[in-house]
Amino acid sequence: MLPLLARTQGVSVEELIGEPPSPAARKRGRAPKLEQQLQRISELPKPRQRAVMDVIEAMLAQQAR
To answer: What gap in Å lies between CA 16 and CA 21, rounded to an integer?
Structure first.
């Protein structure tokens, strides 16, 4: 599910889980897209922010297995 979420957000899987982006990803300018998405999330009502965080945390937990 992480690749799908990453594509939806316009970032690499590495960026999604907090790893430094690869040099190729930096050249494509993905960080500004991630920053825009994070800004949009921060503007959501708190319950919606929590829902987004729950999805991300669930995906990260699956990845760790």
So the answer is: 9
